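**Reference record**
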Amino acid sequence: MAVAGGRWQGPKERSAGFSRLRQTFDFQLGTLDSYNSVVSFVGCILVVVAAYLLGSIPTGFLVAKSRGIDIRTVGSGNIGATNVLRVLGKPAGIAVLLADALKGWLAVAVAGRLICGWLSSAADPQAREWFAICAGIAAILGHNYTCWLHFKGGKGIATSAGVLVALVPLPLLIILSVWVVVFAMSRYVSLASISASFVLPFAVWFTGASPTLIIVTTALAALAVYKHKANIKRLINGTENRINLKRTPPARAPNP
């Protein structure tokens, strides 16, 4: 028997009191879990939107446009660094390459982690990894399907490299080595990029990354190969353009 409110409580009354207390505690825990889930969901949406908009900046198009050229109408018609290099020369091509890579890195290292840091519910390592992965995927999709050019963008190789710098730097070094070797032997940027994309998931697995990252990088590699489908046809037909490392004059804007 126990005393409560000036009277004795029997076993049944104590059991009912404990049951009410447990229900209240479980309700509070459930409410807290629901709140954390909502905050994480909203945070993930913010990360995806911010990273997509960052990745969607059409760097190659803007650089060429500043010189009076629509990069979509010359060369391969792609807005990526390779076509910019062919049309406008090495300085412009390198600038676009670095800017596109920077977009990917900023999306993961700044947008994803900054928003994640604002959310106490995203403090655990698994949540941080998911936020970073969502940011990286969104940045690559933003580059490949930019909303500013009717959802027609680049192939995402440079932006993917920037994402990988932030997510899995060691596998990036492995596939970068593959890219350099294949390019040095063939002078085909597309073949080097396809080869590096094929090796990416194996490099991520070899370095002991999480299963989530292995699955995600496999999907990103498949997307990169898919975006090169026109290049693959030209490689098979023998009509793909090689990169000439000799100095070539940049294209000029057409006379009005």
Q: What stands out?
A: The chain has ten helices and two strands. The chain has two domains: 15-147, 168-243. The longest strand covers residues 2-4.
